[in-house]
Request: fold
Amino acid sequence: MEKKFNNARQKYENVKIPKELDNMVNKTIKGASKIRNKKSTKRKIISTVATLVIAVSSITIGLNTSEVFAQTLGEIPILGDIAKLLTFVEYEIHSDAIEAEVSIPEIDGLGDKELEQRINNEIYKKMKLCIEEAEKRANEYKKAYLATGGKEENFHPMIVKEDYELKSINKDILSFGIYHFEALASSYIKTYYYNIDINNNRIITLEDMLGENHIDVVNKSIFAQIEEARKNPNNMFFEGEMGFNGVSENQKFYINEEGNVVIVFDKYEIGPGVMGEPEFVID
Amino acid sequence: MPWKKNSQYLKLVDYIKNNQNMFYRLAYSYTKNEQEALDVVQEAIYKALTSVDKLKKPEFMKTWMYRIIVNTAISHIRENKKSITTNKIPDICLEDSNSLDISLDLYDAIDQLDEKQKTVILLKYFEDMKFKDIAIITESNINTVKTRLYSAISKLKKIIEGGAYNGKEV
Reply:
């Protein structure tokens, strides 16, 4: 038996370590450190209502005041010629069920104020709703955890981060995404993108970018890229019905610095979770 | 004393970086699937990093970290039970066909133990842990750990000697 254990142990120790491990560990540490740094500097700041460049600040009131949250005026203008993406409101929630960090952006400087307002409202509502639902889920989860015999000290609060990411900006186009990241039993992320034609004040469609045959163009390109990626055994796109079967008219995309369309899929949509949100640049 | 808290955090970061392969192996021995083992490790280190301030005694960092990994792995396989059973079949067949090494039997037989027995075997024989530490990790007392280990060993013996390691339950 002894010898068998030693042999089995050798097998255990010889388990192949995937190359992604190192990268994944570093990324996770980076992500956690970010949250930690913000937390320790802002934890004690008592809320102040953000006053803003434009007169939409009134909707910042009404945040859940039952939690300790810190709200700071974050105004990080990102320079474009006219249009800008700013942090509209930033706050944190710390409770024993959830640790959240929220940073809601707004666009400013569009010629069409109505469009600007509409997009800003939509972003605000979307992000606010997501965080409220996450909070509800976290509380329910905690209740269930304790009810099923889990111990308070072993409970890990849900970690949530909502933020935005500028993809590209120039005098013609503003492209950015807003995302909701959640980690509890497993991590989950959802991103929405906005691509705005600044000169004509309209949302850019795939057709605007790629012409009448845009669906075909995108599908061909993605099928080819998946085919290519399959040559690498670490890429494990789902196959068949579960996998990529063509994009739809409202496929998520953004426009990168080079002006190319980048198609983005949800986590788990066409591949396993470890692949994150797969992206395909369409040349 | 924020600096003290911070030094503990940095210690944990170091500890994670230096032991990531070990975490992966432990996670893998539960999931038997590369992607899922990566998911488990990620989730576990994330949990650890975001709750390190709850760790009161730094000397328990190792057992604390192992506990998070073991618990994360177990809850992960419970959630994904179905997919794991189906993934496991080709593994066994492959090993079965290309080797006569008896150790394969034991390594695979461990998968047939229940979660608690399996954890004790892994920690004791593959991670060289003391009974005391295993008790902390599994939140039980030393005697329970010992009893569990002996019953796990006798079950493993039965599985191997009965040649039934390919079967469902013994």
User: Anything to note?
Assistant: The mean pLDDT of chain B is 78. Chain B touches chain A at residues 2, 6, 9, 13, 16-17, 20-21, 24-25, 28-29, 34-35, 38-39, 41-43, 45-47, 49-51, 54, 71, 75-76, 79, 101-107, 110, 122, 125-126, 153, 157, 160 (CB under 8 Å).
